[in-house]
Design brief:
Belongs to the MlaA family. The chain is mostly helical and 253 residues long. The longest helix is centred in the first third of the chain and has 26 residues.
Length: 253
């Protein structure tokens, strides 16, 4: 059964955003060096500035309730499945992540162009060509390993910020995790550039693929969220400020 692209983009967004916004978080206790391919998943420094500037959070009661929902979803469903999936050797899971990253090139490319980052856009085209051929369909990343062409993570939320659209108040949504109105709109917009709805026939197939991508991503996570819960007096505040600062830093890069 087919459904309209706008509705499908919402469904894709629902299953494609890392639970609790994990990709935006920083683990201040992390010390290990990530393999090159794994850096795609956790491209953050360990010396995160703890001198937070408070984020506007007028919806804090609602946000804390959603934070609790996401916390339970993470610990009782998503992470157990991801840990079970770790029976698959890590190099294979990293290659799966490389493949999904390669498929997502149109999102990064379009947003590089929208921000007039033509050099980065050209590099994304080059990365796609090299990794699709030399990298065997994107399973490997020779463009970075051998040519030094780093992936440029750009999305529509960053593009809107580049043009001065304010982020708006902090917002936590069930499953989606940390966000704000600007990023929420951007994620839906990016869904129109996602190739999967255009190459798969059935809606359930798209949702299954995107869910598998998230499980694979979580299987490579070294319990970042668990470390935050263990080390931070108020994990909600830490995640809120980490998310906000990281997103603003990405816009200014």
């Amino acid at each position: 059964m087919r459904i309209s692209i706008p509705i499908l983009t919402l469904l894709i967004t629902l299953v494609s955003i890392p639970p609790l916004g994990a990709q935006e978080l920083v683990d201040p206790t992390a010390t290990r060096t990530l393999p090159a391919a794994e850096e795609d998943y956790f491209p953050f420094e360990d010396d995160f500035d703890e001198a937070f500037v408070a984020t506007a959070d007028p919806l804090e009661p609602f946000n804390r309730a959603m934070f609790w929902v996401n916390d339970k979803l993470y610990f009782y469903l998503l992470k157990p499945v991801a840990r079970t999936y770790r029976v698959v050797p890590e190099p294979a899971r990293v290659s799966v992540g490389n493949f999904f990253s390669n498929v997502a090139t149109p999102v990064r490319l379009a947003n590089c162009l929208l921000q007039f980052r033509f050099i980065d856009a050209g590099r994304e085209v080059g990365r796609f060509a090299v990794n699709t051929t030399w990298g065997i369909g994107g399973l490997f990343d020779p463009a970075r390993k051998h040519l030094g062409w780093q992936k440029k993570d750009e999305d529509l939320g960053q593009t809107l910020g580049y043009f001065g659209i304010p982020a708006g108040p902090y917002l936590v949504l069930p499953v989606f995790g940390p966000s704000n109105p600007r990023d929420a709109v951007g994620r839906v917009g990016d869904g129109f550039l996602d190739p999967w709805p255009y190459v798969l026939d059935e809606t359930w197939e798209v949702i299954a693929v995107k869910t598998y991508e998230r499980i694979n991503w979580l299987s490579l996570d070294r319990d970042t969220y668990e470390a935050i819960k263990r080390e931070q007096l108020d994990p909600y505040i830490f995640i809120r400020e980490a998310y906000t600062q990281r997103r603003e830093a990405m816009i200014l890069e």
